[in-house]
Each structure stands twice: as structure tokens, then as C-alpha cells.
Amino acid sequence: MLASLLLDTVHPILKSGADSVHMHMPWWLAGFLIDGVYLAVAWVIAVMLPPMAIFFPMFTLLEDFGYLPRVAFNLDSLFNKSGAHGKQALTMSMGFGCNAAGVVATRIIDSPRERLIAIITNNFSLCNGRWPTQILIATIFIGAVVPDSLSSFASLLAVIGVAVLGLAFMFGVSWALSKTVLKGEVSTFNLELPPYRPPRFWKTIYTSLIDRTVIVLWRAIVFAAPAGAVIWLISNVHMGDETIAAWLINGMDGFGFLLGLNGVILLAYIVAIPANEIVIPTILMLTVMVTGIGGGAGAGVMFELDSINATGDILRAGGWTLLTAINLMLFSLLHNPCSTTIYTIYKETNSVKWTVVASIMPVILGFVVTFLVAQIWRLFL
To answer: Are 159 and 138 in contact (CB under 8 A)?
Structure first.
């Protein structure tokens, strides 16, 4: 409902207002502000706010009930084997709502070494900006390779499989860091478990909505606005006969092929670094631009379709195969954090070095994994 209000109601009203005689805004200014900046911000709010408004209050309720310390205590031995701390279970869980919030939550870990491990590996938890991408791609492509009666189940298993793979990478990278650059003794987990208690309603509302949801959402909006401007500019400013986006896509297609992806996907992830929520709208926009579907009408404006089948038709027209879909799901899991998370990592560590490590390491893993999957796929299938 929020998405419908911001994208289907407010956006056309703004466009009509810009085109009215009274305002008479130049097409490029209206496009820059409304189709670029506003649409990016609207998508971030529409995608981020509903899940965060549910996830964070529920998480805070469990925290107030006294359950979360017990979860951390019971999982301490498992995290201990990977050189991490049991409290990382909580920061990892928070990352499933938002990686930036998960990074902030690492303050509960006393050991600087173990806290840094938790910060660097939090990106392996699928945040709410990546869940829609996983679900959409799995529904279109994974569900299509099985009978219709099993398509929903197969799609669900694929998404859960990617999330579990993220946990495996989190444990593996935590272990590797603890044995190399962050070598050290695992701290002892001494914890006096709090009693079970009823939650405090107003404290829960304040903590979940103000301390977590509003602050994180505001940071995302601040980074999404310039991203929308850049996306509109590269899609509408021409270099010769082609847009800047078309030049970049052509230049990255070769590298994308090696990864089982394409230039559209790589460019979308570069310009959508500020917010994972705008990856799919950007991919659809760039695909329409490259393929000229429907005469390329509206190709310079981000969009999404209500119909999953129509979305699938556009992606397949852009040359997508089952390999492209699988590797996109993997790359969605293993790529650099969004700008909000990168900024939060720097604020929490006060270190350019560790911010760069936390930002670059996942995308390198993403390149390696998708490259290996693509080569093995083409060798045997």
C-alpha cells in the first residue's frame, strides 16, 4: 500500500504538476528531480519501511522478554569454534533486518577483536533490501524449472538456501579472520541471564521505531537521493548516439559474461550501492534501454511491474538464463555493503582500513563464486 501511494499516486501527481502551465519545469529538471531523486527515495522508503516496522519491534520485544541473551548464550559454543563470540548471533540476526543496524548492534560485544569480526561478516546476513530480489528471481526462474505444483516450494527452498549459504560464509570468514589478521584468544562468555519479564510497551516502540527504524531509514534516504540522480543522468545523457549507461554496459558485458552475469547487472549494482532496494528497478530500466522493448519507451526511468510474468519476459528478452538468475542470487548475497552500512562501519570502527576490508572482501568473494559457478555450469551443462 505504501509503495502504491508513493510510486503509483504521488509520482504521477508530481509529474503532472511539473508539466502544468503554472510550473512549466524543463523536461530535464523534472526528470532529474522526480524520475531520478524522488523515485529512488520513494523506492527505498516503500521497500525498507514496512519490513523494518515489523522486524525491529518484534526483535525488540524478544530483547525485552529476556530471550535474546539466552539465544546468544546457547549459540556461544558454535560461534566459539569459528573464533567469534556468541553475541554475534544477535548482531547477525539484526542484520537480517538491516546490515547497518546489525553493525551498530555489535556494540554489545566487549572484545574489540570479536566485535570487528562481527562487523566485517554482518554483510553475509541478507538484509530486507535483498530479500525482495531473492524472492523475485527465484520465483521467475527457479520456480519455472519444476512442475507448477512445486514451483512455490522450489522458490522458497532456493531463497532459504541462499540465506543459509550466507550463514556458512559468515562462519567461514569469521574462522579465517580469527586465524589470520584478527588472530587472538576467544573471550570467555560470562553472562548473568536476566529474568523473563514482560516488555515495556513505550520503551519497545521508542527503541524499535526511533533508535532503529527512523535513524537507519534516514541514512538510507540521504544516500539514495544522489544515487537516483546519478541513475537518471547516466540513462539520459548521451555520448554520441548512445547514453552513458549504454557505453558502460557494453564495456562491462565481457566481464559480466565471465561471471555468468551481464553488463546491466554489474552497472545496476554499481549505481545502486547506496540502496539495495533500487537494484531491480534499475536492472529493468537498463534492460529496456538496451533491448528496446516496447520501443524503449520510458527507458530512462526506474520502474517495477506488478506482474511477475511481465518482469520475467523483460529479463529473458535481455538474455537472462537460469545461470544468470542463480548467479544474480549469489551475487546479491556476496557483494559490497550498501552505502549506509559502509558509512556505519566507518563510524563504528573509525578505521578506513577495516571499512575498506569490510566493503571489498564480500564483492571479491562474489566475483570468485559466480566465476566458478559459471565455468562449471558451462563445462557440464
So the answer is: yes
